[in-house]
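User: two proteins, same treatment. go.

Assistant:
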Amino acid sequence: MAAASTLLIHPPVVKPCEPPPGIAKLAGTLRQHRIPYQVLDANLEGLYYLLRQPVADQDTWTRRAVIHREESFSQLTTLDTFQHPEKYRQAVSNLNRVLSRTPSAESTRISLSDFQHRSLSPVNSNDLIRAFETPEKNPFYGYFKKRLTSLLKEQQPTIIGLSLNFLSQALCAFALIGYIRQQMGSTVIVVMGGGLVTSWKRQINWRNPFAGIVDHLVAGPGEAFLLSLAEPTIKNEESLPVYHIINESPYLSPGVVLPYSASRGCYWRKCAFCPENTEAVAYRPTSPSLVVSQLQTLARRYQPKLIHLTDNALSPALMKALMERPPGPNWYGFARFTKHLTHRDYCVALRQSGCVMLQIGLESGSQTVLDAFGKGIDLHMAEKALFNLRQVGIATYVYLLFGTPWESERDAEMTYAFAIRHAENISFLNLAVFNLPASAATTDTLATSLFYTGDLSIYKDFTHPKGWQRHNVRKFLDKKFRRHPALAKIIRKDPPTFTSNHAPFFSP
């Protein structure tokens, strides 16, 4: 009996700068076991479709954006543009402006990285069901109709898998399923997985509201489950990801960027309120030797300009393996502040391995807050690491988190002072206001309330025990932190829309 044909879909809207890593992993598993499949990056194709639609009622700036949209496409795929930040910003602004002015976007706000509906919420299951029932009202419906009608007819898939990782994808994903059901009814098995689905299913009071719409909602890695549907007799094994690079519509990056995951979960798993901790996600690393071998194979096959290691945190063992056997292309990813980074020779070897940027969650410049958070970071160690990384030419994308339950305004001031003192050694800054995970066990000690009005919200609001409420935090960031000349200079360097995904291309 032939294995079931599978169609893997990446729904809109997320940054169209690299292939979807989860689907690349699923595709690699199916290919390894010779199971027929096809990949559709509906995010990339759908955004290109909208960007090329006629734009009516144009003001002066919109007319200019429309005139230059093809040039803007080209500029974001050319490395020279990244040497001229204003030119880059203009190209991104042009494309976002065109997206926001397409006739089909009247009830929505669409950009290259986000999708919002004026009356439907992605955290409300009833609204997602409405999106499913009325796919013709979705701005991407014209694309669905043009692309999927022929694709479904030609391939006749038995299984359709959608990867849903972000809230910005949810409404479009359910509209897409609605169109698929209109065309194929119950003859196809619809499977949905990804980071957002995993977070939904791991909530304490989870109840599935999508029966009859989605046949299977999968939490965590989906390779084994997909294999069990397509060919139940096959056992899942580690496979090489397969990236479907669309040459006719290239991703908006100056060269091929390959996202690759060397582990599931996080090797640290001690940070309070981290989803990997609150959702009890097990740490499952791939052996460093296999990771390096696969990266070298992928580098030869796809000739990428950059490798994006998507792990929650690169383990010291993996970083050592990368230094001993560099993958070839430049690479970047998340890392923790560890003692290794306080040694200059280690940082030199890291740079020689191809590392051009590390994303690092410092979170706070208060040692008291860091200790309460369980970050395992010593501020003196962080200072030395930031200095060393800059000295050897590795950019740092530093994440700061304000408004945690342990932080007072005085602690925030300490973070502000730390950032100023070390501004010269920080390449990029990401400033975030703390969101309390709904599944966190320690929420019992806080006075909580609804964060979003919706049954699928994965966060709660709370009364801050030190009076450091969200509006106070935002005022502090807007009126003080962002206005310091040294910090403002760093913040302005952050690539608009694409942020950390494009930051390595702006690094020395």
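Protein 2:
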Amino acid sequence: WADSLPGVEEWRNFFDSRSDSDPDLARSIAYLSSLNEAAVFSEALGASPGQTYRNYERLRVDIVADPPAGWLLPARTGWQPYPSSLQQGDAEPVGGLLEAFAECVERDIELQAAVEAASENPEVAALRSALESRRGRAARKLRALESQFAAGAEAPAVRELGHILLARKASVPPGVAEVELEDFAGEPITIQLEPRLDAVGNAEAYYDRARRLDRAVRELPTRIDAAQKMVTRFADALTDLDEQGPGPELRKLAGMRAPHRGKGSAPPSPEGERLPYRVYRTTGGLEIRAGRSARDNDALTFRHSSPDDIWMHVRESPGSHVVLRWSRREQNPPLRDITEAAVIAAALSQARGSGLVPVSWTRRKYVRKPRKAGPGTVTTQRTQTIFVEPDARLVDRLAVDGDIPPAA
């Protein structure tokens, strides 16, 4: 059937003449990969010959469509692009098949970044899991409220069923589960009944339901708006976690306590947690952050900085990642601030004894962590280079009180 869809009888006869236990039965049918076979013959979709034929017919329509549709199917290893939803309730529609491939690539990148971050910081993994769980619950609540609101449109039709029952109550026999009556246009209509109630009691039940639907239309928009804001709040929190790392507000939103720190751990910051960076302030008033160690460099770059911050590192020499806080996408910081941050990067590197040190800088959004790379190892794009002289006295002068690095 590669060239054309079979008829219903041909489909039935094909399976009637073969053993259902034949493992190659479905493999001989066009378009039935193992994934598609599960969708066509799933008991959840109905296993009768007529139902499986309709499943197969719908599958072929999706696959041979021009242009093909795009869907994201949940799989064990992530998301899979596909031209059909396979009638999976959790499949996500995308604009087209190419868009589905592009979206899967993007999600794989995000997933890998999350996995890498979690492998380095268990606290981040736990916080991410808690936030995603709460976002999922909020999203399910939102969908339920939206479904209730959509059902509210049925209120006039439900109320009319009550009217018909009252108008035709003499034609409703007692103790039946449904009755066929004429509506007010003279057309036949089947009405479901509660056998324990008479015609008037069933009419009142329809009126009660119509009133609940009317109330849903009036009251649910406010609740839907609040639920939507909560979903957005959790999504923003996950973005903040990726860009800035864990903090008190995110832990509170996730319902988590601050991590316990045993004896011998680093002293906490004023906010209750050890920061992976030292803080400096340029003469122009901009904040500079410098990583304390190789592992802290990763935390600073990927969890305690923003995409448009200026990121720095001495070329071809181990040392601190340095971040100059900056939020203006359309322009760079003043040269004096960039130079002072570069001096700090040079002074906190193994090139501190050189007379002139090359320091690379770029926006933090152009810094990437290669897979399986060691702590502090990154790749960069769109870098520029500035040459500065290490100056320990400038570093001491710009350090925020109590955050001066130890002498080399």
